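Objective 1b. Sequence-to-structure analysis of Cupin domain-containing protein.
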Amino acid sequence: MDSAQFQRQLEQEGFSDILTVEREADGMLDEHTHPFEAKALVLEGEILLRCGAREQRCRAGDIFHLQAGEPHQEFYGPQGVRYLVGRK
């Protein structure tokens, strides 16, 4: 799925706040939550999401989805990560 297709899908699913996020190489965010639901398509690089005991590694072309208030940690790959994300 390309970014234009993904953006259309997000809009159809009611994600009105759509933006591109870039994170630094080998960076991370400790456990935190967001007050919004997020669905993202990784465009470049890599991200590892840790939600409790569950881990999800995403690379270019992969999609990840987090519910509002879901505690998680984020770890960025050696080239960082860039993703298109919808929030609602």
